TrEMBL record:
Biological process, per Gene Ontology: CAAX-box protein maturation; proteolysis
Keyword hit for Transmembrane helix: yes
Record protein name field: CPBP family intramembrane metalloprotease
Lineage: Bacteria, Pseudomonadati, Pseudomonadota, Gammaproteobacteria, Lysobacterales
InterPro entries: CAAX_protease, Rce1/LyrA-like_dom
């Protein structure tokens, strides 16, 4: 189930069970180590400003970029590293343009409910909370964990997507101020994880779309100071659900033009995608 590439050279991949073990093991280490190490060092050494941003880049997200790309290269060969992670260089334009179109309503809507937040720290916040988190989380949770389990290890969409989504939701629990608040943040972000996984598949393994959506949604959230957490007010959440609705309509239209959806029938539950595409 290798992805299509410009090269006809194929690398024999390990057995599905071996890919699943590698994906789960490597993810558990990355998800539980790199950001915790950054937070501990940042607190101990009181890094602030540029120093904190560089530390987050190198210590927090650097290992996951290196490990994910390195393992993809090891599993699928140098000619398919980017394709196996949904980062085909010839498909970034369509993915990012779709993300821009789906999120265009957010700045218009947020401008009505929240003030602009163009503080001196805004540039750093964009890099930290939009760019690094958007790219890093999509690469780790969607392309690596979910992608390897569903695309290559033969798991069904829902089992693979739920594993990724539950971890994704749990990773945002720290934002909650109480049990009810944490539960709502967990449910909202886990739902977002399921949504991103579905888009990743139905756009023919194009991670650029989830990356674009993730980065832009975080960017607009910070640009208008909507909320300090992922929960936000009701009006803001309705706008985000509108983005989901737009993306669903656009995705279904795209899938029809490409011969139909990839997740059908039993493949919701087991056996990987209906066809690797």
């Amino acid at each position: 189930m290798n992805p299509p590439t410009p090269s006809s050279t194929q690398v024999r991949t390990p057995a599905p069970w071996a890919i699943a073990l590698l994906a789960l093991g490597a993810f558990a280490w990355l998800d539980g180590f790199h950001l915790d190490l950054f937070r501990q060092l940042a607190a101990e050494r009181q890094w602030q400003g540029g120093a904190r941003l560089w530390a987050l880049t190198v210590i927090g997200y650097g290992p996951q970029f290196v490990v994910v790309l390195g393992l993809a290269r090891l599993l699928f060969g140098p000619g398919q590293t980017l394709y196996s992670l949904g980062l085909a260089p010839d498909r970034w334009r369509i993915g990012l343009l779709a993300a821009v179109a789906c999120t265009a309503i957010l700045p218009l809507g947020y401008a009505l409910i929240a003030p602009l937040s163009l503080t001196p720290q805004f540039g750093s916040a964009v890099l930290r909370q939009a760019l690094l988190s958007g790219v890093g989380e999509e690469l780790l949770y969607r392309a690596f964990l979910f992608g390897l389990l569903f695309r290559y290890a033969g798991w069904g969409f829902l089992p693979a997507a739920l594993v990724s989504a539950l971890y994704f939701g749990a990773n945002h629990l720290y934002q909650g101020q109480g049990l009810a608040d944490s539960a709502a943040i967990f449910a909202l972000t886990a739902l977002g994880g399921l949504w991103f996984s579905w888009l990743y598949v139905e756009w023919r393994w194009n991670l650029w779309l989830p990356i674009g959506l993730h980065v832009l949604m975080n960017l607009y959230w910070d640009l208008f100071a909507v909320s300090d957490t992922a929960l936000g007010p009701m009006a803001a959440n309705l706008l985000r659900f509108a983005v989901i609705g737009l993306s669903l309509a656009l995705t279904l239209r795209y899938a029809r033009r490409r011969g139909g959806r990839l997740i059908v029938g039993r493949h919701w539950w087991w056996g990987g995608p209906a066809r690797p595409d």
